[in-house]
Amino acid sequence: MAVYTDVSDEALSAFLEEYEIGGLVAFRGIAEGVENSNFVLRTTQGDFILTLYEKRVNRDDLPWFLGFMRHLSAHGLSCPTPVVGRNGEALRELAGRPAAITTFLPGVWPRRVHLYHCRALGEAMAHLHRAGEAYVPVRRNGLGAESWGPLLEACRAQGDRVHPGLVAEVSAALDGVLRNWPAEGALPVGHIHADLFPDNVFFLDRAVSGVIDFYFACTDMLAYDIAICLNAWCFEMDGSFNVTRARLLVAGYESVRPLTAAERASLPVLARGAALRFLLTRLYDWINTPPDAMVTRKDPRDYLHRLRFHLQADGPGAYGL
Ligand SMILES: Nc1ncnc2c1ncn2[C@@H]1O[C@H](COP(=O)(O)OP(=O)(O)OP(=O)(O)O)[C@@H](O)[C@H]1O
Ligand SMILES: N[C@@H](CCO)C(=O)O
């Protein structure tokens, strides 16, 4: 359930007065998602999404995110476009929280991943990378490699309660990944989505209809976005890696932006890093979210299994490349 902040009808009506998007017809909270409070807003002019930004999103980053979405939309990517109020600003405040209205995207995210999703995803990701090229502001990845050590430290005392031996195993993997992490300048850098999971990619008629949730987007190695998707899209429910999905994902990507030899060679270490990133944020949340909170905690162990796969992958061949 991701409606942390209640919005009264009166507050919402007053808020909408500051926009030119028509009068309120219907309004409901969206249960999906874990980070922010999201609402669907129907006005006399159509459907919109209202987002109230909760604690994890740094208020100072919001202009970067909203500017990035506006830039991508203007460059042909289907993603939520921030709607400006009468004062020309997209970022406002509601119920004591930073808030923004964006356009509503049609489509459904895949509950079950099929091969056609993977190729379309790869293409869409490369379009996103290309469309982002001319966006000048930079945002450092706050969950990049240098954040993983401190995250693990924060989980050290309780990590083994989640899975016996977890802390030592993750610690050893992290040392190896950091030793082999690509040096600055070794791989092409740009703006990446950094959380391109199935629930953030909408499809209609087998084609990507839109990409949402840009609140982890940042400036980092482009191939790291691919590594995140290898983790999030290419494992079966039983934990096995589906090489065909990976091959299609990369083929879709390369139909728009071919990878360099160095990017290909780095995919195994990037995939290990991406597995660690999600393992560690999930572990942190698992330990720090009370079991009776309204949010569904995501299991860190899913990413321990993925990490183990990547650790034994000795080259891009393990990913069907
Ligand atoms: N622009 C949009 N158009 C249509 N539906 C949207 C849009 N933005 C969000 N939604 C709906 O709201 C849900 C939650 O959105 P989102 O994933 O951005 O939330 P979140 O709290 O940031 O979640 P998380 O970071 O856990 O993925 C989506 O699954 C989708 O159903
Ligand atoms: N996609 C993340 C959660 C929210 O960003 C995960 O599955 O751990």
UniProtKB/TrEMBL annotation:
Q: From the record, what ranges are coiled-coil?
A: none
**Phosphoprotein among keywords:** no
Which keywords does UniProt give here?
A: Amino-acid biosynthesis, ATP-binding, Kinase, Nucleotide-binding, Threonine biosynthesis, Transferase
EC number(s) from the headed UniProt entry: 2.7.1.39
Annotated ranges, domain Aminoglycoside phosphotransferase: 27-259
Keyword Calcium appears in the UniProt entry: no
State which pathway it belongs to. Amino-acid biosynthesis; L-threonine biosynthesis; L-threonine from L-aspartate: step 4/5
Task: Identify a single GO molecular function assigned to this protein.
Answer: homoserine kinase activity
Q: Which reaction does it catalyse?
A: L-homoserine + ATP = O-phospho-L-homoserine + ADP + H(+)
* Biological process, per Gene Ontology: threonine biosynthetic process
Q: Which InterPro entries match?
A: Aminoglycoside_PTrfase, Homoserine_kinase_II, Kinase-like_dom_sf, Pseudomonas-type_ThrB
Q: Which HAMAP family match?
A: Homoser_kinase_2
Q: Which family does it belong to?
A: Belongs to the pseudomonas-type ThrB family.
The name under which this protein is listed is Homoserine kinase
Q: Which organism is it from?
A: Ameyamaea chiangmaiensis
Phylogenetic lineage: Bacteria, Pseudomonadati, Pseudomonadota, Alphaproteobacteria, Acetobacterales
